[in-house]
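Q: Could you fold this chain for me?
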Amino acid sequence: MANWQDSRIGGIVMTVWAAVTVPLTVIGILLAIPFLGPRRAFFTIGPLFARGLAWFGRMPMSLEGWQQLPADIREGRQPVIFMSNHASQLDPPVLIGMLPLPAVYIAKKEVKYIPFVGWAAMVAGVIFIDRRDRDRAIRSIHDAALEIRGGKSVVIFPEGTRSRTGELLPFKKGGFALALDAGVPIVPLATVGGFQVLPPGSAILRRGCYRVRAGEPVDPAAFGDREALSQAVRERIQALLAEPQPA
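A: Sure. Below is the predicted structure, expressed as structure tokens.
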């Protein structure tokens, strides 16, 4: 007999559950701020959304390759820029739930105006960039580099938007300018399974496995320009996406 999650009704139930728990998670974060402080409140309670979704929907999630990273990165002594493909709206909360250390997003400024999501983003310390204003975007990237050099790790989707096909889109230049400015390692990530669990244009969650794969860090100082750095990171993300699924 098929599991209830595999039916359309099951998918709708999972979607409603997720829609309800998003505001509840954000409210929990806001209530915890007086006791934990903004950043700690977010990274204590925020990951519970993805973990709860995985439990409720029987959606296994795994993090692969983390133990192969240098200890300074794993233990948070070395700030890094995580760069991941982006194939599903679930990618951001899944990465928050799966990465063992706190890392904030660099996002377009419009995100801050999304109810609940924007509030949580501001609490977490998300770095917002105004893409429509070139001068402001350049200043934002420089300010972000200062924060990274000061110890803050960040997550960037170098495609700049979600893929509609599951294939990698062309990479934007801003994240690589930031990496060269900050002078910290880039850790390539691949999220696998999100495109099947919540495809673009769909509001119905489907049952499936969600894997996050971490690859060998890339040193921006080893590359002469943004184009060469971008190509190296792209090749590593593509290689992670192409790895065979476990039996």
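A (continued): The beta strands are 61-64, 81-84, 104-108, 127-129, 154-156, 186-192, 210-214.
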